[in-house]
Write a structure and sequence with these properties.
Elements lengths: L12 H35 L8 H51 L4 H17 L4 H16 L20 H4 L1 H12 L176 H4 L1
Helix pairs in contact: 1-2, 2-3, 3-4, 3-6, 4-6
Length: 365
């Protein structure tokens, strides 16, 4: 795709400027003509049948002076508008050129140039609200193209995809920068960031704003989500083993079949979260809020639930609690408000095999 030329929809700059300029010229000529010929008629209308004053010429000149002053004020207003319009058009042109240059930098082989393109897009998104949604989609695609394993599914969550010895910020600074920009940008209404099937162990997404993000089937082993807002995020089949989720917000998130073994999640907000069949072995959930969560089929053996709030959680005989945990202290959920067991087949998320093309009759012969 060519990035050096951006298609422009609508009239050209010349038309946009010449149209208001032509109209302003017509208005100016009309006002000038009125200032020259209208004073006599105005004075006659004002006098009516009365006798004209002795200083008739002076009266006409006074009216003409007042009209010319009004015309001058109108010209100043029109000039101010045209100047503002020209500045808007110049800014739009600069934004378009900067946007095209930043997109070109994302495909550069040098990591330094790619970093410059990422931060240039962030600057554009702050100044241009119309481009925020597009920039979010571009950066999400940038991350997926460099860290996505399209073959991942729920079976891969039980095992780490790769062993990472260093943090993502040192291993892939451009991907880390793109995630950082996505996490601190202003939220765009009804936009879902598609970041599924990523392989990003030891990623740092602390304090990021990732509401409604889609991370399903991703490997985020030992990642940092301290204070991260993941409200209503899709985290089905995600591997978060050893991750730090302290004070994170996962309100109404979907964590079905997720692996959270050994996570440090003190003070985490898991209210109304679907944790059915999730693996929470040896998880530190001290002070966590699990109210109205779904724990059917979840495994919590060895988990620390000291000070955790479990008001009206949903569980059954398949829920594995820590040794010695007394479930009688849990306030039961109302039967009529229990959500149905949602059996995840992952058919809508499965990777479809490539179709096998049948041999033509000529090749068969």
């Amino acid at each position: 795709m060519r990035t050096d030329k951006i298609a422009r929809v609508g009239p050209s700059w010349g038309y946009r400027i010449s149209g208001p300029l032509f109209l302003s010229a017509l208005l100016g000529l009309g006002a000038l003509a009125g200032a020259l010929f209208l004073p006599r008629y105005l004075l006659a209308w004002d006098l009516g049948t009365a006798k004209p004053p002795a200083d008739y010429a002076t009266a006409v000149n006074n009216i003409r002076t007042a009209l010319l002053q009004g015309v001058g004020g109108l010209v100043l207003l029109i000039g101010a508008y045209l100047t503002w319009r020209q500045l808007q058009l110049s800014r739009h042109g600069q934004t378009t050129e900067s946007f095209a240059a930043a997109i070109a930098h994302l495909g550069d082989p040098s990591v330094d140039v790619r970093l410059g393109g990422i931060y240039a897009l962030e600057r554009i998104s702050r100044s241009s609200t119309a481009d925020r949604r597009t920039i979010g989609e571009i950066l999400s695609a940038f991350v997926r193209n460099r860290a996505c394993d399209p073959q991942r599914d729920t079976r891969h969550a039980r095992h780490a995809a790769t062993a990472a010895s260093v943090n993502l910020s040192l291993r892939a600074p451009d991907i880390h920068a793109a995630l950082t920009v996505l996490g601190r940008r202003d939220t765009v209404r009804d936009q879902v960031l598609h970041l599924d099937r990523l392989v990003l162990p030891k990623a740092d997404l602390a304090s990021a704003r990732l509401r409604d993000a889609d991370f399903h089937f991703s490997d985020l082993t030992e990642a940092s989500f301290v204070g991260t807002d993941l409200t209503r995020a899709d985290l089905t089949g995600v591997r978060l083993a050893g991750a730090v989720l302290a004070d994170a917000i996962l309100y109404q998130a979907d964590l079905r079949d997720a692996v959270l073994t050994g996570v440090i999640a003190e003070g985490i907000d898991l209210r109304a979260t679907d944790l059915s069949k999730a693996d929470l072995r040896n998880a530190n959930l001290r002070g966590a809020r699990l109210d109205y969560g779904d724990l059917r089929g979840a495994t919590l053996t060895g988990a620390v639930l000291t000070g955790a709030s479990l008001k009206r959680v949903v569980f059954d005989e398949t829920t594995a609690w820590p040794d010695g945990f007394d479930t009688s202290r849990i306030r039961p959920a109302r039967l009529r408000s229990l959500p149905p067991v949602r059996i995840r087949t992952y058919g809508e998320l499965a990777v479809q095999p490539a179709p096998v093309e049948a041999d033509s009759p000529a090749e068969a012969e």
